[in-house]
Write a structure and sequence with these properties.
The complex is a heterodimer of chains A (311) and B (445). With 311 residues, chain A is an alpha/beta fold. Chain A contains nine helices and 14 strands. In chain A, the strands form three sheets. A six-stranded mixed sheet of chain A has the order 6-7-8-3-9-10, with helices on both faces. The radius of gyration of chain A is 25 Å and the shape is globular. Chain B is of the alpha/beta class and 445 residues long. Chain B folds into two domains: 93 residues, Periplasmic binding protein-like II (D-Maltodextrin-Binding Protein, domain 2, 3-Layer(aba) Sandwich); 226 residues, no CATH class. In chain B, the strands form two sheets. A four-stranded mixed sheet of chain B has the order 2-1-3-4, covered by helices on one side. Chain B has a two-stranded antiparallel sheet with strand order 5-6. In chain B, α7 packs parallel to α12 and α7 packs antiparallel against α15. Chain B is elongated and about 95 Å long. Chain B starts with a helix and ends with a helix. Classes of the chains: A alpha/beta (311), B alpha/beta (445).
Chain lengths: 311, 445
């Protein structure tokens, strides 16, 4: 069941087409990665989900029905550009923002108490935001974003500005939220965290969606049938590869040799049986492209074909 | 609705709790109080004792200078002026008045001092000399002082307005003062608190919190919440100022024991002089004419329709602020920092300053076409109508109703326009915006 769906969204700013017939679908209780280079249209799409802007054409659905203004209370949003009132006290400000999301003052207070204790930041309550470091302010903002227990949480580059320790705390928090039923839309350039956290992704480039699906499916779809073999060559005969196998590269490390082999139409068993008579195998694994590789490959492909079309 | 209340509450409380608000609230009435109290205090302060050595080479004056409280004239005969100047060294005389022999022709005298005497002292001496010389010249010409005094004429014009069979006397000076006061208050309120709206919007935009907030509320709610919240801050401040000023002024009056007799009167010198020199002149104590004027003033004040005036004042006070407040918000949303506001401030400040400048022409002819149009157009009406009002609006107040209705239409229109600009502007960063761009935002659906 999907919690959010965007159907054929188009949005044009004066001279610039920000989104061109984009559709995405976010499964309930999943982490959805919204990927794309800078200026691709991710923020525009996110602002439509938070109802800051509206599409020129296309439809937005929440729980299978049209998105309505009251849904903002069920959505949490951490924008990429963080910001709090600098001159306002942390506690007072958190209370204010929570109440704007529809929490009563009493509930907000109780929840804030819980989170401030959990993150061990009770002493910040009376401090003004301008007295906090950037990382501290980010932490406060993260709490404020999730305080009203949104069903759909949108995090735009949530780890930027955090040190590795705090990054880890936030990562754990995100996974815990997911476990408790929250759906998360996660926009980032950090492909490592996409592989680690996301179930599904959509890749947007130049206002168009160019790829979507589950992370594991996409990665296996982009396999190049390359296998990585580590072996010991005691006889000194080297790799004897039959017809149809391509040796892409070899290197040696601590007496152990590594080879990357493209197996073409053959399967991995055939490669193994060809190798076993000559060398002793240490490890054997398929090379699965990283999201980073896929991202770069897809974006470059599209940009090149656009250039070609324009030329 | 409940969320806009939250926004109003925040805007109001954060400002009212600020130190600068509390300081301004206390300082304002002190300054206002000082404005009333200091002149009175200064007036009640007795001048230092002044002893003037008079070297009269013309021998026209001799002892004819009346001694004044704290001012004594010492006439010396046949002392050279250089000798007299030396007397100043001994610090007994504070000044030497030198009257040359040919004063009647030259009209020149000289005062030599170590420490500058007050303006009033010099004026007093000058008047004394003038009076004496005038008297001399008159008697030489064979004119009696009595005759002259009898010939002096001072017309007092009473102004009355005739309308629908009712004659009503008017005090134009008072109308001017009341009108100007209302106009000035509205002018400052719009500028002071309009600028606060603008700064608030810029703060939200530059700190980037605006995106968080408008993911919870509509931009229009945020804008209106801010404008209304700040209006309430302004009203609170004005109210506190009025209360505190009244308290301070009345307390100070009581403390200084100021009563009518010690209040500075506009022409005390001449009156006392004339009174002494020509006993036949109607011998009025100086205060009596003042109190007659005061009675007249009180009567005129009583005639002012205060409930109407205050009611209309509050309407224009709020209406004018709302009209301009929205525009200030729009300007704030279109820029990244306060330095960039200049180019957009011009269209806001021009009608305000224009109203202010035109106010005196309106006073000259409060029922003329300029007064009419400026008090109808929403951008100038908040100030000009306040200036016009004390002079009276023809019954059944048609002008006033039109003006008020147009002001309401005006602020709805500016708020609508501003809302369009604001909505787009608050999310626009790093772009130099011009008027063409703003127009695009307004048309943008």
């Amino acid at each position: 069941m999907e919690i959010f769906k965007a159907e054929n969204i188009t949005k044009r700013f004066a001279t610039h087409l920000a989104l061109d017939d984009v559709s995405i679908s976010v499964r309930e209780n999943s982490i959805f990665g919204l990927l794309g280079p800078n200026g691709a249209g991710k923020t525009t799409l996110i602002r439509m989900i938070t109802q800051i802007t509206a599409p020129d054409s296309g439809n937005l659905f929440f729980h299978g029905r049209k998105l309505i203004p009251a849904d903002t209370e069920k959505i949490g949003y951490l924008p990429e550009e963080r910001g709090l009132y600098k001159k306002m006290e942390v506690g007072e400000q958190a209370l204010y923002l929570a109440q704007l999301k529809g929490l009563s003052r009493k509930d907000a207070l109780a929840k804030l108490k819980y989170w401030f204790e959990k993150f061990e930041i009770e002493s910040w309550w009376k401090k003004k935001v301008e007295e906090l470091s950037k990382g501290m302010a980010q932490k406060v903002q993260f709490i404020v974003t999730i305080l009203h227990e949104p069903e759909l949480l949108i995090l735009d580059e949530p780890f930027s500005g955090f040190d590795p320790i705090n990054t880890n705390i936030i990562k754990e928090e995100i996974l815990r939220l997911k476990k408790n039923g929250t759906t998360i839309i996660f926009s980032t350039h950090n492909m490592g965290s996409v592989e680690e956290l996301c179930d599904d992704i959509a890749l947007i480039n130049q206002s168009q969606k160019i790829l979507d699906g589950s992370v594991s499916e996409i990665r296996s779809a982009y396999k190049n049938n390359i296998w990585e073999v580590a072996y010991l060559d005691q006889s000194g005969s080297g790799l004897q590869l039959p017809e149809g196998f391509d040796l892409l590269a070899t290197e040696e490390e601590d007496g152990k040799k590594m080879a990357r082999v493209k197996i073409g139409n053959h399967n991995s068993n055939e490669l193994l049986s060809a190798l076993i008579p000559h060398v002793s195998i240490v490890s054997f694994k398929e090379e699965i492209p990283t999201m980073n590789d896929i991202f770069i490959q897809k974006v470059n492909e599209m940009n090149a074909s656009k250039k070609l079309a324009n030329a | 609705m409940h969320k806009i209340l939250l926004i109003i509450k925040r805007e109001y409380l954060t400002r009212v709790k600020q130190k600068s608000f509390i300081i301004m609230t206390i300082l304002g009435p002190l300054l206002m109080g000082a404005l009333f109290v200091v002149p009175i205090w200064v007036a009640t302060q007795e001048d230092e004792k002044t002893d003037v050595l008079v070297v009269d080479e013309s021998h026209l004056f001799d002892t004819s200078f009346p001694d004044k409280e704290n001012m004594k004239f010492h006439f010396v005969k046949d002392m050279a002026i250089t000798e007299a100047e030396k007397q100043l060294e001994e610090d007994y005389y504070s000044a030497v008045l030198y009257i040359p022999q040919n004063i009647i022709n030259s009209n020149g005298a000289e005062i030599i001092y170590k420490k500058q005497p007050g303006f009033n002292t010099i004026l007093f001496i000058e008047t004394s000399i003038e009076n004496e010389l005038e008297g001399l010249k008159l008697s030489e010409a064979g004119i009696d002082k009595k005759t002259l005094a009898a010939a002096k004429t001072d017309i007092k014009m009473r102004k009355s307005k005739y309308e629908s069979g009712v004659k009503e006397s008017k005090n134009t000076e008072l109308s001017m003062v009341v009108g100007m006061l209302g106009g000035v208050l509205i002018y400052f309120f719009i500028f002071l608190y309009g600028a606060q709206v603008m700064r608030g919007v810029i703060e939200e935009k530059s700190s980037r919190i605006v995106e968080v907030i408008i993911s919870s509320v509509k931009p229009f709610q945020l804008m209106m919440g801010k404008i209304i919240g700040i209006a309430m801050v302004g009203l609170t401040q004005f109210l506190l100022w009025i209360i505190l000023t009244t308290t301070i002024v009345s307390a100070a009056k009581g403390f200084l024991g100021v009563d009518k007799s010690t209040l500075p009167t506009p022409v005390p010198m001449e009156q006392t002089l004339n009174g002494q020199q020509s006993p036949l002149q109607p011998n009025l104590p100086a205060n009596q004419t003042d109190s007659e004027d005061m009675d007249e003033l009180w009567k005129s004040i009583d005639k002012i329709n205060f409930p109407l005036l205050i009611g209309v004042f509050i309407f224009y006070f709020i209406g004018g602020y709302l009209l301009y407040g929205a525009l200030f918000a729009a300007v704030g949303s279109a820029v990244d920092n306060e330095a960039d506001t200049q180019q957009f401030m011009l269209p806001i400040t021009i009608p305000l300053i224009l109203s202010f400048v035109m106010a005196q022409f309106v006073m000259n002819n409060p029922e003329g076409p300029m007064a009419f149009w400026l008090s109808i157009i929403p951008f100038t009406s908040p100030i000009i109508m306040m200036v016009r009002l004390p002079f009276g609006i023809p019954y059944p107040y048609t002008d006033l109703w039109i003006s008020m209705a147009l002001l309401v239409v005006g602020f709805i229109a500016t708020t609508w326009f501003a809302g369009k600009i604001y909505r787009t502007g608050i999310l626009m960063y790093g772009k130099k915006v011009n008027y063409k761009e703003l127009w695009k935002w307004i048309r943008y659906h």
